[in-house]
Design goal:
Number of strands: 4
Strand content: 5-15%
Structural class: alpha+beta
Radius of gyration: 21 Å
Helix content: 40-55%
Number of helices: 9
Strand order of the largest sheet: 3-2-1-4
Largest sheet: 4 strands, mixed
CATH class of the largest domain: Alpha Beta
Distance between the termini: 28 Å
Length: 189
């Protein structure tokens, strides 16, 4: 999965670049009219491609009715904007998924769990970009626990569309040293 520019990955070409630019505009100033030359530049889309794509977005109700050549006025309260925003920043969704899957698949819970790598940093652009789990097993972990950890890693790799790997540490201090400053600790509740 491309976590760097997910809309362009999901909607290749003009549509993805245009949606990315419009979501950015919606985030910064949804009520300001967006001149076509600015939108064309931000989306790296020619004016001809822009008009055709804007027509389709108008049919969906994301932008206000307009004549060819007029500035774009977003419909800020449209229900789809929230979904598009969620797609542009999947970090929280990844954290939630790892937390949920860990709670379901690893009993007892690990003493420590952190995420590291391009996926959690939001810079992954290719399926080979990695999400790394840094894990401290609980003191009561049986051999079966480590097998379930391997199953969790396989399951997450499939669901996230990226390679998930794990490293095991003996204690929290070692885990924190392994993961560095960019790691995101996952608190299991």
């Amino acid at each position: 999965m491309n976590f760097g520019t997910p809309l362009s990955a999901l909607f290749p070409g003009t549509s993805g670049r245009l949606l990315t630019a419009l979501v950015d505009h919606h985030s910064t100033d949804a009520t300001r009219p967006l001149p076509l030359d600015e939108l064309s530049k931000n989306a790296a889309v020619t004016s001809t491609q822009l008009e055709a794509a804007l027509f389709r977005l108008g049919l969906l109700g994301l932008i206000a009715p307009r004549r060819k050549g007029e500035a774009v006025h977003l419909v800020p309260g449209h229900v789809v904007w929230a979904a598009l925003h969620r797609l542009t920043d999947l970090r929280d969704a990844v954290i939630d998924r790892v937390r949920e899957e860990t709670q379901q698949r690893l009993q007892p819970a690990p003493d420590y769990l952190a995420l590291n790598g391009a996926v959690i940093e939001g810079t992954a652009t290719h399926p080979a970009d990695v999400l790394e789990l840094i894990v401290v097993p609980p003191p009561t972990a049986q051999a079966d626990w480590h097998r379930r950890l391997a199953t969790l890693v396989t399951h997450l790799s499939r669901d996230l569309g990226n390679v998930v790997v794990h490293r095991t540490a003996q204690n929290t201090a070692e885990a924190k040293a392994m993961s560095g400053t960019n790691a995101v600790p996952i608190f299991l509740t």
